[in-house]
Amino acid sequence: MAAIDLMEKTTVVDAGTDLAKAISAASKEPNILHFGVTNNGVYAGLVDDRVLRDFTGPSSTKVGKLTAHPKTVSPRTSDEDVMAAFLNGDDKVLPVIDDGKILGVVTRWGALSSMVASNAVKGKKISEYMTRKLVSITEETTISQARKTFKENNLFRVPVLDKQSRMTGVISTYDLAVKVSPHTAGAARQSTFEPTLLERIGKEPITSIMSTNVASVTQNDSLSNALKQMIERRVMGLVITEEGKPIGMLAAKDVMRACLMEKPAPIQIVGLKEDETMLKQSLFDECNTFLAKWNKTIDLAPEDSLTLHVKSKVEGKKKRFEVKSRLTIEGNVFSSRTPPNVDEHKQNWDLHLAVRESLQELAKIIKKYAELKKKRAMSREEE
Hints:
By secondary structure, this protein is an alpha/beta fold. The chain has helices spanning 3-6, 19-26, 49-52, 79-87, 108-112, 143-153, 173-179, 197-202, 223-233, 252-260, 280-298, 351-382; strands spanning 11-14, 34-39, 42-48, 93-98, 101-107, 137-138, 157-161, 167-172, 216-217, 237-242, 245-251, 267-270, 305-315, 318-329, 332-337. The chain has 3 domains: 3-108, CBS-domain (Roll); 126-259, CBS-domain (Roll); 267-382, Double Stranded RNA Binding Domain (2-Layer Sandwich). Helix 4 crosses helix 10 (252-260) and helix 11 packs parallel to helix 12 (351-382). The model is unreliable at 184-195 and 341-345 (pLDDT under 50).
């Protein structure tokens, strides 16, 4: 299954469109807000409720000033690579781009729909993948305070509790984007002592915009049931409850991680045809050499794994190989492939060289990950 099979429509607006007008056109989709932005007909970026989470300016702002640039996929990108793209970032939707034009988007639950017929989550419990560190707010929390909580904790959804710590609703970035952002056009202050419209809205209790129809499950429920709920209710996360009280969250990314990490063996080589299996041991050796080298940099854990997907095609009297490499590190999924174009890659008539080139591309990605991880660690130490 490819991105084109998972794709959904998205509203497309010009970069000069007012935010309020764009939101009005795009907010017909429940639980998520997104619209593509073009400049002279060419894709220029995307705006979703994640982008608007921290935005407090006037709704007359032109959307071209707000565009984010999430990872993009082509119509031919595989469903596995789509999930890997979601896992390696915070994007809620991935634009599907072809020849500079946006065709649509793939949402997180759209990506999950490809796993319905799979056995990847069969027999697994929610308790194995849920996040137990829970951030919540109370019914007395104001909209302004909730926005601050979202920003400080980099969240998209939090449960709302009453005085008995029972859940009465959920507030999400979608609620903030659709129910608050379009109404801040008159943000100009009339006098030094008069609050702006944005400030007045910010003092409203969160109960005025929260959603009360909450999608929830228990930690003993199956992961397949959670997958079904996310797709049917079109939500990107479920609240885990126990006796009416929230004890954790299960995000779409948690389910994706379970799907992509179903095979825990350190090295997997799949796709070899019968007459190619004699090369399997030498390919294992290539993989072991690769892991031994990078283990010094990224400290691979026993649960991390490297998978090679091999495809071969007979052309005349020769075989042409395409190899996709996938490495899981700390729950993240990194993947690369051998360039399939013969002009770009003249060596893919040899399987070992195809594997080597695929691993070289993977090494570039891992190097960036290791450097970013090091920078974050240094930043935390300085704080």
